[in-house]
Design brief:
The chain is mainly alpha-helical and 400 residues long. It has helices at 2-11, 27-50, 61-74, 77-83, 91-94, 104-135, 138-147, 156-189, 202-229, 235-266, 271-281, 283-306, 312-343, 364-384, 396-399; strands spanning 13-15, 349-351. The chain has a two-stranded antiparallel ribbon with strand order 1-2.
């Protein structure tokens, strides 16, 4: 740590306070809102079919739910790794602090995991689970029998009741998803002492960028998983999801542009420091990666795909490139907010520097490991609860 601090001191510029030399919120804190944004965005994809009746995206409904669950299970890990005391992680539940926005995460997380996601997934899969519990033997059959929770009623009346529960939970879950990720932006936006963070648009920008990243993630997973399984992509589903990604992208770009325009128009105290921050200190991560490659290029690719010039076999590759760049760009946005806000000194006359170690407690290796874990969990969930089979629960002829 001392070697890193010494290296940081070599890059410090201007006049900064002594406690600003070390950047306390590392890459893990940038990863935390990134993962929660993927959770919220994936659930919004599921809501398109369930609430807004967008039938075209039905093939990704269950996949979106499982994706949200896999990433939600890993959402607290960056915070736990950053704090370094995993044995105390549950104290946020047992010793509530109702006036703390950060402590509120524990309650929002528990509500979203237990009441929203697990409840919706259980009732959506319940009849399939009963069928699998009767068909499979051994360990897999035992797991399905446990997942039935002792409820074996698979009659039409029970099916209709399950549908009602899922619809209600999805309606409740949509604002819950907004709360789960919007509050992260609220934390940054409420820090009045930091001019790079203090903005009433911050929660809204975080929420719309979450929509962008979540839709991109589900679309990418759907395309890749279909290729791995050797199954033809549903063209209507793929094109529709890409369309929603484009629309949400345009809204997100408009909000971020509005925030920058407001900063340049008002030119409040510290304006010159922000200009230097953007044009020099985070120029690569902000202008090149976030704005150009992470926003403008994906929008152009999606516009080209939506123009109808190319056939679907070409469009799907445009979608792949666009979604990958989108995920990189949204993470760059989180990086620029978290890291950029800390290297800007409160004196407005100096800048600190952040060096991300490759190995160690808050390093690149830990970040990559945490980011890879949700995909491992998703692979297990997909194996246990296949999302691409025609949902046995929702056969219309049984409901009529």
């Amino acid at each position: 740590m001392s070697e890193i601090l010494w290296e940081v001191l070599k890059h410090v510029e201007g006049y900064i306070y002594p406690n600003e030399v070390e950047v306390n919120w590392s890459v893990l804190i940038a990863l935390y809102p990134y993962i929660t944004g993927l959770v919220a965005g994936a659930f919004i994809v599921a809501s398109l079919e369930r609430i807004f009746k967008v039938e075209a995206v039905k093939p990704t409904y269950r996949l979106a739910l499982l994706t949200a669950l896999a990433f939600l299970l890993c959402a607290p890990l960056p915070l736990v790794a950053h704090l370094g005391r995993p044995e105390r992680a549950f104290e946020i539940m047992t010793t509530p602090h109702l006036t703390s926005a950060m402590a509120g995460f524990g309650f929002v997380y528990a509500w979203y995991l237990l009441i929203v996601l697990l409840t919706e997934i259980y009732y959506d899969y319940r009849r399939d689970i009963i069928r699998w519990a009767k068909e499979y033997k051994g360990i897999r059959g035992f797991i399905y029998r446990v997942l039935t929770l002792g409820e074996w009623d698979d009659s039409e009346e029970a099916l209709k009741a399950d549908q009602r529960v899922v619809n209600i939970v999805t309606v409740v879950g949509l604002p819950s998803a907004a709360l789960l990720h919007g509050y992260v932006g609220f934390i940054f936006g409420s820090v009045k002492a930091n001019i790079w963070w203090s903005s009433p648009l911050m929660p809204i920008i975080f929420l719309f960028s979450a929509m962008v990243s979540g839709i991109a993630l589900v679309l990418l997973i759907y395309i890749v998983s279909s290729y791995i399984r050797g199954v033809e992509l549903d063209r209507a589903c793929t094109d529709t999801l890409a369309g929603y990604l484009l629309y949400s992208y345009i809204l997100d770009l408009g909000l971020e542009a509005m925030e920058l325009i407001h900063i340049f128009y008002t030119q409040e105290e510290g304006f010159d420091a922000i200009v230097t921050l953007i044009s020099d200190k985070i120029f690569v991560s902000f202008i090149i990666i976030q704005i150009f490659f992470g926003t403008l290029v994906p929008i152009i690719l999606l516009l080209i795909a939506k123009s109808g010039i190319f056939k679907f076999n070409v469009r799907k590759y445009l979608y792949i490139f666009a979604t990958v760049l989108t995920l990189i760009g949204v993470f760059a946005m989180r990086w620029n907010v978290v890291i950029g806000g800390q290297i800007l000194s409160k004196t407005y006359m100096g800048y600190s520097y952040y060096i991300m170690p490759v190995f160690g407690p808050e390093s690149l290796s830990i970040t990559l490991a945490i980011m890879a874990l949700p995909f491992v969990i998703l692979a297990i969930l997909v194996k246990l609860l296949p999302p691409w089979e025609a949902p046995y629960v929702w056969e219309k002829k049984e409901l009529e």
